Amino acid sequence: MIVCKNCGEQLLDDAVFCINCGQKVENVNAEVNVAEVPAYVAVENVGAEAQSNQAQEPQMMYNNQMQNQQMMQNNQMYNQQMQGYGYPVPPKKPLSSKAKKGIIAGIIAFFVVLSAIIVTIIVVSNINKDKEIKAKTVDLSEFIEVTYTGYDGYGTASYTIDSNALKEALIKAQEKNSKTTKAEKEYYAISLEYEISVSLSKDEKLSNGDKIEVNITGPSSQSLKAADIIADDVKYSIEVSGLKEVTKVNLFDYIEVTFDGVDGDITATIKNTATDDFLSGVYYDYPSKWYLSVGDKFTITIYDYEISNALENGYAFTETSKDYIVTGDSYFKKQSDISETIITQMNTTAEDIIIEYFDGISKVEASDIEIVGSYFLINEEKNDWYRYQNYYYPIYSVNIVSTDGKFEATTIYCTVEMHSILDKTSGEVTYMKGSSILGQTELKYSNFYYVKGFNSLEEAYNKCVVDNNDYLTLESKTGEVE
Fold first, then answer.
1. Strand order in the sheet with 211-217
2. Three-state DSSP class for residue 117
3. Beta partners for 450?
4. What are the residues facing 248 on neighbouring strands?
């Protein structure tokens, strides 16, 4: 065995070339008779030497492709001959890195071109498909128009559908459908249009800059499939614009409401003081103006059609209704609400009447006139035209004697009726008084003798309170009275 000096490969003793690296082996043991080697072997050696000389001094140009093919054929023949003669065949020389890179580059180039072809086919196919889909697709939003009317802050939105253009588009979208006739295409177009619906997220009280959502619901999938077209639901947003500026006004700044009368019988007066031609003629609604009571709510409301008319004339009412509280003179319902000044004044009035009465009676002298209590009664029925709304009875004790001794000294109880005690809006309090003392007392005289008043407090209570129970309510009593 011998070893290759170039790569270290172990070779047979008679090896001429290294089977691993192709290097010629210097083998002193191998004796080759050149005369026995075929002529073409020597020719190839000469050819190899000629190629070396040719690299140094080029003589002529050969076609690279033909030269490579010829060399391959020579190598094949040489290998066959050498094998036939029993000579070892040198192994193929490994490809250089440059050659390997060239092969790899070629493979990559091949796959790049192949990929480009595939992508081109897909793109062209998708383009054709997109064209087909686009041809039978109808964008419903193209046929819907939303318009705005009115004034900023009070505008309204509405929509219209261009039926003719929509019908034409629906028919055109069916052109590729060869399964239907022209009449059927028109029928489908009309049917599909009827299935389309539009809604707006907001359509009133609009201001410039507001956003509105437009929702378009297309035909059913079944109808679209029958017509072989595409008309999907559409949803988009639009901005309100173009609304006119409006003049805001509060009509109630020009409405004057006054109340006059007594509680339960108050009348309302309404007056529009506006000088503007439109505002001065606005109509409004209100309840009955008569027989009102203090504290009632009196509401004035502008009619709806007047609100619309105002917007058409460039006005917007900031208020459309207003509540007014009825005021007026009112009768006292509680004695505690009457000031001490008024109570004292009524007591004094009653006392003066009592004194004046007894001063006018001969042979009877009254003394020790003192108030012992009072009754305050009210009428619950406000519109009772037959009775007063309140009554006040101050009760006085009076000692009377006969100036000629005809009867024994006695104590009687006198009262004078005060009624219609009124609290006026001006702050004044008024009342009405009875003209005389209530009741009658029998005295023992030479003959029967009577004076006004009551023998007891019980009689006074019965007269003032019990006899009026059917229509009056005792609100309060003071002092020693029953």
1. 197-200, 211-217, 234-239
2. helix
3. 442
4. 316
> Within the chain, what is the greatest distance between any pair of CA atoms?
207
For residue 172, give both structure tokens: 């055109």
**Chain centroid offset of residue 237 CA:** 15
Separation in Å, CA 34 to CA 31, 40, 41, 81: 9, 12, 9, 15
What is the torsion angle, in degrees rounded to the nearest 10, for the CA atoms of residue 103, residue 107, residue 109 and residue 110? 140
> Which amino acid appears at position 106 of this protein?
G
3-state secondary structure of 265: strand
Would you call 459 helix, strand, or coil by DSSP?
helix
CB distance 226 to 265 below 8 Å: no
> What is the C-alpha separation between 482 and 466, in angstroms, rounded?
11
CB hemisphere CA count around 117 (13 angstroms)? 6
Rounded (to 5) percent helix, strand, coil in the chain: 35, 30, 35
Closest CA to 357 of 299, 438, 261: 438
Rounded Cα distance between 409 and 399, Å, is 7
Give the 3-state secondary structure of residue 255: strand
Radius of gyration for the alpha carbons in the chain, expressed in angstroms and rounded: 64
Helix/strand/coil for 378: strand
> Considering only CA atoms, which of 145, 155, 309, 147 is closest in space to residue 243?
155
What are the helix and strand counts (H, E) for the chain? 9, 22
Supply the pTM of this predicted model. Answer: 0.51
User: Residues 6 or more apart from 216 whose CB is under 8 A from it?
Assistant: 140, 141, 144, 196, 197, 198, 233, 234, 235
Contact 389, 330 (CB under 8 A): no
Q: What are the phi and psi torsion angles at 193 (to 5°)?
A: -65, -40
Instruction: Select from 269, 451, 477, 470 the least CA-distant residue to 362.
Output: 451
- 144-170 pLDDT, tens digit per residue, is 999 998 888 888 999 999 999 999 988
Span 231-255, pLDDT tens digits: 889 999 999 999 989 899 999 999 9
Distance of CA 79 to the CA centre of its chain: 95
Round to the nearest angstrom and report the end-to-end CA distance of the chain: 159
Count CB neighbours of 311 within 10 A.
19
Strand boundaries in 287-354, DSSP class E: 297-302, 315-317, 321-325, 330-331
Q: Tokens 């639009």 identify what position?
A: 238
9-55, pLDDT tens digit by residue?
888 877 778 878 878 877 655 444 444 444 444 444 444 444 444 44
Kindly provide the b/e burial profile for residues 49-59, where b requires at least 16 CB atoms within 10 angstroms of the residue's own CB.
eeeeeeeeeee
Question: Could you tell me which of 380, 385, 443 has the C-alpha nearest to residue 409?
Answer: 443
